[in-house]
Design brief:
42% of the residues lie in helices and 17% in strands. It is built from 20 helices and 16 strands. By secondary structure, it is of the alpha+beta class. The longest helix is centred in the N-terminal third of the chain and has 20 residues, at 16-35. The protein has two domains: 16-64 and 101-355, Bira Bifunctional Protein, Domain 2 (BirA Bifunctional Protein, domain 2), CATH 3.30.930.10; 365-455, Rossmann fold (3-Layer(aba) Sandwich), CATH 3.40.50.800. The strands form three sheets. An eight-stranded mixed beta sheet has the order 1-5-6-11-10-9-7-8. A five-stranded mixed beta sheet has the order 13-12-14-15-16, covered by helices on one side. Strands 2-4-3 form a three-stranded antiparallel beta sheet.
């Protein structure tokens, strides 16, 4: 007996209903991207390993899926690494490519490679899958789509203001009210690290701090200690753990806490500018919140950092995030090209919309009308009408087999097709159609033009 087939952990199959719902989210996001002036690009699903490695910090690098070299990859393996079981050195000799971890680093590579063809500032959006060797759990998959929008070639903080407006526009369109757009600034984190004597351990500090909402204050402090951050410095963090109040109140408190750090005060100034702009423009349904513990442990953020939380009654990780990166393209040789971007977490947004029952009832509408098949003569007559319906923009199809009528009607019910057309010998002879409204249970005879108008 053949073994039942399966798929790798952290991946999924999608049925037609799920695809329809995902497309609803895709189309909503894509429409907003276009409205805000972003242009689409695509990059390969895999990149050269040296494009990706070293760009996401130590933790991120471990989550990158490596692709074995084609052919006899062991023939060129590092023999010493193989014998000593040194997986890091061995990997570099047997794998030269990797699946993309996100869309931002490939985008930076794209900008550098095509810099002579790009008009700056360049606003791009990209909707493609990415892969991470993460531990699968609710809302976290090994293969998932990212929906990114970035601007490169401008240091203007108005871009950050625009991205907050973009988040608000998308979530308002999805009727997902009550989302919180959290914001921080990497310069503030640098200032804090300077304050506690951990400037040389900024990455360790931010990676630990970024886990605060997941593992709690005590475990974050323990992780910092384990990374060599002194206890005296950690004690100085207590005012940050206890920071409360609205955006303006927290800004004033940070000015006092970071008064001796030029870098930290610069970050506070940038956040103040962004908040002033957002308040002047207003938000429809989202809320902007300052969160000084927001770190997003990625090496390339240099300014504002974003993270979007679902409504409070839904337990879910972030449904969006991003930030400012002043010199990401510098890693590929193109200096001083500042950028800022955000990402929408499609899969988590899907789960939130599902939990809140926010998908429109019409999202699964595919076929509007099914023609019942009574035989070859009737089928040909029906297909001529179906061709006219399709030209009129109506999705229509013929049941392929002349099966029992009950079976064909059950098929229409299971697929939730709203209209059924019955064409027998009488209809063929009189050039007419019998149209049945499946919701009302009513049916009547009509001409082709009447049929088109009624369904429309």
């Amino acid at each position: 007996m053949a073994q039942k087939p399966s798929i790798p952990k952290g991946t999924r199959d999608f049925n037609p209903e799920q695809i329809a719902k995902r497309n609803y989210i895709f189309n909503t996001i894509k429409s907003a991207f276009k409205t805000f002036g972003f242009q689409p690009i695509e990059t390969p699903s895999f990149e050269n390993s040296n494009t990706l490695m070293g760009k996401y910090g130590e933790e991120g690098d471990r989550l990158i899926f490596k692709i074995l070299n084609s052919g006899d990859y062991l023939a060129k393996a590092n023999e010493a690494a193989y014998l000593s079981k040194d997986s890091t050195k061995l990997t570099t000799s047997i794998s030269e490519k990797a699946l993309r971890y996100d869309l931002t680093v490939p985008f930076a590579r794209y900008v550098v490679q095509h810099q002579n063809d790009i008009e700056f500032p360049f606003k791009r959006y990209q909707i493609q899958p990415v892969w991470r060797a993460d531990r699968p759990q609710k809302g976290r998959f090994r293969e998932f789509f990212q929906c990114d929008a970035d601007v490169v070639g401008s240091k203007s903080l108005w871009q950050e203001v625009e991205f907050i407006q973009l988040y608000d526009t998308v979530f308002t369109a999805l009727k997902l009210t009550g989302t919180t757009i959290k914001i921080n600034n990497r310069k503030i984190l640098s200032g804090i690290a300077e304050l506690i004597g951990a400037s040389d351990k900024l990455i360790d500090f931010t990676v630990a701090l970024d886990k605060l909402d997941k593992i709690g204050e005590d475990k974050v402090k323990a992780e910092m200690l384990s990374k060599g951050i002194p206890q005296a410095g950690i004690n100085k963090l207590q005012p940050l753990f206890n920071l409360t109040g609205d955006f303006d109140t927290q800004i004033e408190a940070l000015k006092a806490i970071l008064s001796t750090s030029n870098d930290g005060l610069k970050g506070v100034e940038e956040l103040e500018f962004i908040n002033t702009g957002v308040k002047a423009l207003g938000l429809n349904t989202a809320k902007l919140q300052l969160d000084v513990t927001l770190a997003r442990g990625l090496n390339y953020y240099t300014g504002a950092i974003f993270e979007v939380s679902a409504p409070q009654n839904i337990k879910m990780g972030s449904i969006g995030g991003g930030g400012r990166y002043d010199d990401l393209t510098g890693i590929f040789g193109l200096k001083d090209v500042s950028g800022v971007g955000i990402s929408f977490g499609l899969d988590r947004i899907y789960l939130v919309l599902e939990a809140l029952n926010l998908f429109p009832e019409t999202v699964n509408d595919t076929i509007k009308v099914l023609f019942i098949n009574f035989g070859d003569q009737e089928a040909l007559y029906s297909l001529k009408a179906i061709k006219a319906l399709r030209l009129a923009g109506i999705n229509a199809e013929l049941y392929p087999d002349a099966a029992k009528m009950k079976k064909q009607m059950n098929h229409a019910n299971k697929r939730k097709i709203p209209f059924v057309v019955l064409v027998g010998e009488e209809e063929v002879n009189s050039s007419s159609f019998t149209l049945k409204n499946m919701d009302l249970g009513e049916q009547h005879k009509c001409s082709l033009s009447e049929l088109i108008n009624y369904i429309k």
